[in-house]
Design a protein that fits this description.
alpha+beta; Thiol Ester Dehydrase, Chain A; globular
């Protein structure tokens, strides 16, 4: 699969429809960074009229997971990936358009190279932060990913 915003958004619709229905959309992707947005709407809000934490989780996990998938695909080796931990902090009500980004591409590349060399599980922590339209942080998620080269 080619990793472009339109292909990833189609992937969301087909494989993770709940994220698609909630409004999670990928905007841009490079080797080092990914940007995903989601707009607070009636369908994805909590009782306090802000973006539900689980929707923020879907958007933030997408930033880390797609970045890992892209680098694995480009590497050409068979590598397993699995989320093994999660930590989230919320600092402000998430209203309006929220933009999540992860720029840990270099960490991913190093972990992939190491697991290919050793064949062992490599664990890495990737960070995704969400900002509102005033560029104020609304949440920060840290995902622990484990990857391992397969034979």
């Amino acid at each position: 699969m080619k990793f472009t915003p339109s292909k990833i958004n189609l992937f969301l619709m087909m494989k993770i429809p709940l994220a698609y229905i909630a409004g999670v959309r990928m905007k841009s992707l490079t080797e080092k960074e990914i940007i995903v947005t989601v707009r607070h709407r009636w369908i994805n809000q909590n009782p306090y009229k802000s973006l539900y934490w689980a929707v923020q989780g879907m958007a933030s996990e997408l930033t880390t997971g797609i970045l890992v998938m892209k680098q694995i695909t480009e590497n050409g080796k068979k590598i397993s990936m699995l989320v093994t931990g999660l930590n989230g902090n919320f600092t402000k009500k998430a209203k309006g358009k929220i933009t999540f980004s992860c720029n840990d591409g270099d960490k991913i590349k190093q972990a992939i190279e190491k697991t290919i060399k050793t064949g062992e599980w490599e664990t890495l922590t990737l960070t995704s932060e969400g900002f509102d339209e005033e560029n104020e942080k609304v949440s920060k998620f840290e995902y622990e990913w484990s990857i391992r080269a397969r034979n």
